[in-house]
Design a protein that fits this description.
Bound molecules: flavin-adenine dinucleotide
Number of helices: 7
Distance between the termini: 47 Å
Strand order of the largest sheet: 5-2-1-9-21
Largest sheet: 5 strands, parallel
Oligomer: single chain
CATH architecture of the largest domain: 3-Layer(bba) Sandwich
CATH class of the largest domain: Alpha Beta
Structural class: alpha/beta
Radius of gyration: 21 Å
Number of domains: 3
CATH topology of the largest domain: FAD/NAD(P)-binding domain
Number of strands: 27
Length: 415
């Protein structure tokens, strides 16, 4: 019996076992998936909780509901990966799992403890986050009685998962305080280590303009060194200060500690892999999918989905002794909620930055690329249903895994 072990039953791990369990011969293959938690979180929904758009129950379901019959699920912390011995050590009963092939899908998560002054007595009082379930629910409670002041949204360091979520948060905050009738008492500031609002120049310009229209201050190229929780200021390495009354931070995102313990990660504990095949350069039976992988594209559920699609076809060839053929192109597709019932959509890959146009049907849409529209907002809101009912279960989506130029308005300069 050949053994496939998948580490992490989040978005990527759940999708890949669903796809592979239908393809691999059950008489020949044993598939095991390991995760430390029983609960699956719909992380894109964390954005909406502080503003009362989603409640807690909209974003949680049991992981087991999404693990297909015939796949073994073990709930345990993963202690160590021993790639030289083709085995993984679990915390539960000190058990070892041997494997023929290993897929690492342990994600990335916020580490407020990495920034001096952040994770202290003011954590979840005047300093909040919305990238975790606990963080977003605490912030929702805080905002219910907050009477206004300086709200600073800050990204400590890139890469972070869903690099558009901080923008969406500040756009929704603008809308929320308008509806609360206190926008004139709230000063919104977006503090980023990037030169502009986003990682890609053209989208950054468009999103920067949207910030200006909404009267949101942008402080670019601000490298946070520490937080002074008593003075309530963010301090940069150049000793510049940004004062706040309420800090909503996106702390440094780091891969799982087990990656560091196992000596398999980069400086942020993300796993280096070939960007087209997702194979480890050091071990040809080890792959990384989703946020755990160190790839030069966004860390996003959409990227995990497209990468899984390409990977599965490739894996089936690989185990039959063939060369990997399908090449992952870094395809990312993100709806950006921009407030007041509108949204923006961006679609890009390793080589092509977000361009204007229509998606998915060229010339028709119904979604508009790099442009605000109500339809884009509905795309974002529909996504939760699609996530629980189609994506996680590994069902087919009518969107190509590799990015297409059809429907995009390109100029020579952009491609
Ligand atoms: C606020 C927010 C908004 C977002 N919005 C969007 C969006 O609009 N669109 C989009 O495409 N993406 C969005 N994302 C990103 C998306 O949620 C992630 O990219 C996606 O979930 C990554 O999937 P993953 O499987 O790689 O990691 P995860 O889904 O995070 O899964 C990792 C799993 O590994 C497990 N694990 C880790 N370490 C261990 C260990 N040592 N032992 C056992 N188990 C372990 C964890 O428990 C977890 O279940 C958003 C994220 C956030 C936080």
């Amino acid at each position: 019996m050949k053994k496939l072990v998948v580490l992490g039953a989040g978005t990527a791990g759940t999708m890949v076992v669903n796809k592979l369990s239908h393809i691999l011969d059950r008489e020949e293959w044993k598939i095991t998936i390991v995760d430390q938690h029983e609960t699956h979180y719909y992380q894109p929904g964390f954005l909406f909780i502080p503003f009362g758009i989603y409640g807690q129950n909209d974003v949680i379901k049991p992981k087991r509901d999404f693990i297909p019959a015939g796949v073994e699920m073990i709930v345990s912390e993963i202690e160590m990966i021993e790639p030289e011995k083709n085995r993984v050590r679990l915390a539960k009963e000190n058990r070892y799992l041997n494997y023929d092939f290993l897929i690492i899908a342990t994600g990335t998560h916020p580490r407020p403890d990495e920034t001096p002054g952040m994770h202290n007595g003011q954590w979840r009082k005047s300093i909040h986050d919305f990238y975790t379930f606990e963080g977003t629910t605490a912030l929702a409670k805080h905002l219910r009685t907050w009477e206004g002041g300086r709200l600073v949204l800050n990204i400590v360091e890139m890469p972070i998962k869903c690099p558009v979520a901080p923008l969406e948060f500040i756009f929704l905050a603008d809308w929320f305080f308008h509806t609360q009738g206190i926008r004139d008492r709230v000063d919104l500031t977006f503090v980023t280590p990037l030169p502009g609002a986003f990682t890609k120049p053209r989208a950054s310009k468009m999103l920067g303009n949207t910030m200006e229209e909404k009267n949101i201050n942008v402080v670019p190229e601000f490298m946070v060194e520490r937080v002074d929780p008593d003075k309530k200021v963010l301090v940069s390495y150049e000793e510049e200060e940004v004062p706040y009354d309420l800090l909503v931070t996106i702390p440094i995102n780091m891969g799982a500690e087990v990656i560091e313990r196992s000596g398999m990660g980069d400086e942020l504990n993300h796993v280096p892999v070939d960007k087209h095949t997702l194979v480890s350069p050091d071990y040809d039976n080890v792959f990384a999918l989703g946020d755990a992988a160190a790839l030069p594209t966004s860390k996003a559920g959409s990227v995990a989905h497209f990468a899984v699609e390409v990977f599965v076809e490739n894996f089936v060839r690989y185990i039959e002794g063939l060369e990997m053929r399908e090449k992952f192109d870094g395809h990312s597709n993100c709806y950006i909620e921009s407030g007041f019932g509108k949204g923006i959509l961006i679609d890009f890959n390793y080589d092509v930055e977000p361009l204007p146009g229509k998606f998915p049907l060229p010339g028709i849409g119904p979604f508009s690329l790099l442009q605000e529209s109500e339809m884009n907002h509905w795309g974002k809101m529909m996504f939760r249903w699609i996530y629980w009912n189609v994506l996680l279960k590994g069902k087919e989506m009518p969107i190509a895994a590799n990015m297409t130029m059809a429907g995009k308005w390109a100029t020579d300069k952009q491609v």
